[in-house]
Amino acid sequence: MVTKIRRIVSRLPTHIADIKENPRWLPMFTLGRVMLFRKLAWRLNAPPAQLDLTNTLFPEVDTEQVAERLRRDGLFQGFRLPADISSEISSFARRTPCFGNFDRKLELLARDHRAAEFATGRAILTGHFFERVLDCEAARRLQQDPLLLQIAQNYLGGEARVTATRLWWSFPTERASDYDLHFASQNRFHFDLDDWRMIKYFFYIEAVDQDSGPHLYVLGSHRQRLLRHQFTLLVGQSSEDIERIYGREAIVELTGAQGFGFVEDPFGFHTGSLARSGPRLALEIAFGVSEKLHRRFHGEPVVRSLDC
Ligand SMILES: O=C(O)CCC(=O)C(=O)O
C-alpha cells in the first residue's frame, strides 16, 4: 500500500505539468479509465479520409483487416519494414548517443552501456533518443507513412494524428529494482492513459527473441475491464492478477526478426520485459485524437519537480 501511494505521489508533478500544458487532459485522465466514458468518446469519431497509399512502405498490408483485428483483439502483428529502412535506423542508433533511464544528464552510446552502469553505479534499463530520432530520415519516413495513418483513421476516426515517436534501447541489466522496472515499463503490466482513443505501432529495428525484452500484450483486454481496474488510481496491475483474469493463453509474447512490426490499442494491458541476453532496439509511433503533449512526444514519461 505504501509503495502504491509513493508511486501515485511521485507521478503528481507529471500530471500537473500535463494539465498545465493542456487542461483538456484532466477529464481524459480522470474519466478515461472508465469503460462507460470511453465508449462515449468512441462515438464522437469523424469518418476516416481515403488517403493516397501509393508511397507506403507496406503495400501488402490490408488496412481494413488490421482495423478489424484491433477491434477484436486490440493487436495486429505482421508488419515488415524494408531491410534498408531498419538498417538505416539501426546504424543511426548505434552511432548516436542516447539518454539512459530518461535522464538527459546521462548520455551514452549503446556500446558503452556496461561501462556507464559501472561508472554511475546504477542500473540503466533504457536509452532514449528523444527528439534526436527525427535526425534519422528513415524514422521520419516511417512516421509519415500514409498506410499507418490510414489504419489509425479507420480505427480511431478521422481525427487521428501522430502523437508520439520514440526510438529507444532496452538494455540487459542485473541490477533492476522494482522502481526501475515500473519506470521503464518492463515486467509490469499496465494500460496507457494518454488519450481517449489511441494506437501504438512498434517496430523491432533489430531481431527480438524471448531473451531480448519482448513486448507482451493481453488480447481483448482493451474492451473488457473489471470494475476495480476501472475505478483505480493506478494503471499498473500485477502479472498474477492479469493471468487470473484474462488467462495465460490471452498473453501474447511478441518476438520477431529485424523489421518485424505490430500495432496495438494500448488501453489493453501490455508491458515490455527486461532484456536478459542482449539489448532491444524499438521504434514506437503513436496515433491519438487529442492535441499532443510536447514532453511525451518523444517518450519522456515524467517530470521530476513541480516547477515545470
Ligand atoms: O518496452 C515495451 O515494449 C513497452 C512499452 C510500453 O509499455 C508503452 O509504450 O506503453
Overview of the molecule:
The protein has 308 residues and is α+β, with helices and mostly antiparallel strands. The chain has a single domain, classed as Jelly Rolls (Sandwich), CATH 2.60.120. It is built from eleven helices and 13 strands. The strands form three sheets. An eight-stranded antiparallel sheet has the order 1-11-7-13-5-4-2-3. Strands 10-8-12 form a three-stranded antiparallel sheet. Helix 4 packs across helix 8 (146-156) and helix 5 (83-95) packs across helix 7 (137-143). The longest helix is centred in the N-terminal third of the chain and has 20 residues, at 2-21. It starts with a helix and ends in a 20-residue tail after the last strand. It binds 2-oxoglutaric acid (AKG). 2-oxoglutaric acid binds at residues 170, 185, 192, 200, 215, 266, 270-272, 284.
